[in-house]
């Protein structure tokens, strides 16, 4: 693939955001907040980081991208269509009967997704299995895995954090979507995660932090992770849920206001179901 | 003819029959149970709104416990609370609870028979859009296989409400599955509801087949019954709302009466209602049977109607199965 300037990638991200909103509105269901928040990360990965070939998705030595928090698949789908994995017109069939783009990533319908996912907390362990096996066979590819902050509540996730740390899987890079929300409210209210960095440190991971909407920073962090041979790397991407859609992100309450207030709860709900325009599961 | 002793809705086959969420029946029933018994506590695994645990949470915030996306902790914390003397209700989706935490339920709730109530919402194909990873089609099998566990599958809003009030008063572990979509409220407040006692919804002088259904499939079976009746085929529809302890007596009596049984469930046929009914009949009074359900396949995205068609769970599929089982009986 040709290389792109950061400006070009920002333009792509804008188009992808438009796609994501249209897809979710058409489907009448989905998770706009998480999806929009991770658009820049997916653009950075597919355009500037992953060593892969959309025309040859089964290439043995491709970098792997595992999406653990499968509910944000609309963003991944949209970026995949832009780099040529499938035709753009498929996007509007998100979650419909027999569509290659199922409501959650379903590898039976689209093998380039690498895994079928949606149930939270399992993606890191799957990625660890891939990375461990690849290292056994001296493979050079890298395994990337995206996880959400909410799924850090799951034991399965932390079991894998320990495994990856113990085995120094330096061929694995995890990007955490740190958007501070989950379904029942702010993460720090539902189940506090902080101090997240200290937790990963304790498990012998290398830690990088990025602004999840700064494509340049994301690319640099991923390149840096490739050069770390002693540890697995976690990149904590600070993201804004609903990023790019004014009525979704316009609310400054996201980072400041007391988590308990009804207004904030309402705002979270609004963002999750696009002000009631899509079905709330 | 409808069984007059059950006081079913007089709008049962009318277009304007009321449709409601069974989840709402559960949520409002739970609120009522919580008012009666201060020992009741409700636990959520980051799915407060969609499981309708939110009604209870708003009224009794001090008895509502948020555990985060952590289904294994959900049921084991509940086990501890029951060990102490509370009556915990665990709310999540069927695919995650009991899907993800089965051994914890078996060991920490089943063996010592703690009165923990596990609510699996968004079960079945009808979750639609979300697809294969979220369609709990194995939960009945997972829960019926645990000794001491009771398994309930309501067929409308009112049954869900009645069920929750009854299980709150019973000092035993329960699992209740709930669908996502709205469905016709074909029963009334006066319709009797007792665990382990199936409701025989229709009567006939000369019935040829008994259709045993559960959950959303009960109303589908009633529609099949109606159409078959027009074509001169009389059937009996049984609402098997309790899968465990199963009502063996009604199953055997029905088999003797009609000599042929069709079962219908929105669940895998292996280990579900059909498996259990057939084992009751094999042990007591074998008759020809047709088992409708998901035939050892995984689900996928789609509208509920498209999925019911794809997986053979429509009125038409029931009618076909009835005709087939009659042919087998008479051959
Ligand atoms: C094991 C499991 N339990 C529950 C769910 C339901 N669920 C879907 S998204 C979600 C919120 C998790 O928070 P996060 O992933 O941070 O959400 P986002 O920031 O994208 O809104 C939950 C609980 C699930 N998918 N998997
Ligand atoms: Mg989040």
UniProtKB/TrEMBL annotation, chain A:
Keywords: Thiamine pyrophosphate. Signal peptide: none annotated. Belongs to the transketolase family. The keyword Plastid does not apply. Residues 11-267 form the Transketolase N-terminal domain. It comes from Candidatus Woesebacteria bacterium GW2011_GWA2_33_28. Its cofactor is thiamine diphosphate. CDD domains: TPP_TK. Transmembrane segments: none annotated. This is Transketolase domain protein.
Automatic annotation (TrEMBL), chain B:
It comes from the Bacteria. Keywords: Thiamine pyrophosphate. CDD domains: TPP_PYR_DXS_TK_like. The keyword Glycoprotein does not apply. It holds the Pfam family Transket_pyr. Its cofactor is thiamine diphosphate. The keyword Methyltransferase does not apply. This is Transketolase, central region. It comes from Candidatus Woesebacteria bacterium GW2011_GWA2_33_28.
């Amino acid at each position: 693939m040709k290389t792109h300037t950061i400006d070009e990638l920002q333009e792509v991200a804008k188009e992808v955001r438009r796609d994501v909103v249209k897809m979710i509105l058409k489907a009448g269901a989905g998770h706009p907040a998480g999806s929009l928040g991770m658009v820049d990360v997916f653009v950075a990965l597919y355009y500037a980081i992953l060593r892969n070939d959309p025309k040859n998705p089964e290439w043995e030595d491709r970098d792997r991208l595992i999406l653990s928090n499968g509910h944000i698949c609309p963003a991944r789908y949209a970026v995949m269509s832009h780099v040529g994995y499938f035709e753009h017109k498929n996007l509007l069939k998100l979650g419909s009967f027999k569509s290659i783009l199922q409501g959650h990533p379903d590898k039976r319908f689209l093998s380039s997704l690498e895994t079928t996912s949606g149930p939270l907390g399992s993606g890191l362990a799957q990625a660890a299995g891939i990375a461990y096996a690849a290292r056994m066979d001296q493979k050079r590819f890298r395994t990337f895995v995206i996880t959400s902050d909410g799924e850090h509540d799951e034991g399965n996730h932390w079991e894998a954090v320990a495994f990856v740390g113990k085995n120094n899987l330096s061929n694995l890079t995890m990007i955490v979507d740190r958007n501070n929300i989950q379904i029942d409210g702010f993460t720090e209210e539902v189940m506090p995660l902080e101090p997240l960095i200290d937790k990963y440190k304790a498990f012998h991971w290398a830690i990088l932090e990025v602004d999840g909407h700064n494509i340049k920073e994301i690319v640099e962090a991923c390149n840096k992770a490739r050069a770390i041979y002693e540890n697995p790397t976690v990149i904590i991407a600070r993201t804004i849920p609903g990023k790019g859609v004014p009525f979704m992100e316009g609310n400054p309450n996201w980072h400041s206001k007391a988590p308990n207030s009804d207004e904030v709860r309402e705002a979270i709900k609004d963002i999750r179901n696009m002000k009631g325009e899509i079905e709330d599961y | 003819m409808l069984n007059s002793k059950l006081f079913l809705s007089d709008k049962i086959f009318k277009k304007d029959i009321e449709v409601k969420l069974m989840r709402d029946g559960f949520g409002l029933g739970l609120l009522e149970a919580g008012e009666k018994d201060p020992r009741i506590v409700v636990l959520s695994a980051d799915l407060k709104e969609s499981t309708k645990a939110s009604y209870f949470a708003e009224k009794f915030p001090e008895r509502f416990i948020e555990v985060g996306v952590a289904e294994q902790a959900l049921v084991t914390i509940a086990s501890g609370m029951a060990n102490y003397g509370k009556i915990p209700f665990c709310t999540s989706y069927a695919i995650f609870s009991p899907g993800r935490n089965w051994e914890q339920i078996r060991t920490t709730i089943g063996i010592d028979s703690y009165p923990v109530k596990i609510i699996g919402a968004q079960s079945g194909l009808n979750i639609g859009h979300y697809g294969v990873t979220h369609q709990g089609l194995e939960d009945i099998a997972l829960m019926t296989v645990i000794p001491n566990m009771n398994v309930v599958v309501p067929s409308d809003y009112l049954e869900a409400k009645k069920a929750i009030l009854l299980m709150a008063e019973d000092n035993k572990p329960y699992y209740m599955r709930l669908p996502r979509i709205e469905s016709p409220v074909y029963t009334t407040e006066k319709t009797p509801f007792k665990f382990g006692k199936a409701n025989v919804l229709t009567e006939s002088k000369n019935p040829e087949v008994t259709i045993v259904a559960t959950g959303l499939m009960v109303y589908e079976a009633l529609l099949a019954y109606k159409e078959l009746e027009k074509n001169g085929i009389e059937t009996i529809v049984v609402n098997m709302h309790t899968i465990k302890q199963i009502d063996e007596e009604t199953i055997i009596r029905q088999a003797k009466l009609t000599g042929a049984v069709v079962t219908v469930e929105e669940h895998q046929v292996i280990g579900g209602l059909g498996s259990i009914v057939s084992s009751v009949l094999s042990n007591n009074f074998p008759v020809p049977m047709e088992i409708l359900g998901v035939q050892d396949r995984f689900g996928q995205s789609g509208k509920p109607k498209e999925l019911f068609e794809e997986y053979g769970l429509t009125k038409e599929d029931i009618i076909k199965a009835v005709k087939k089982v009659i042919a087998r009986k008479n051959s």
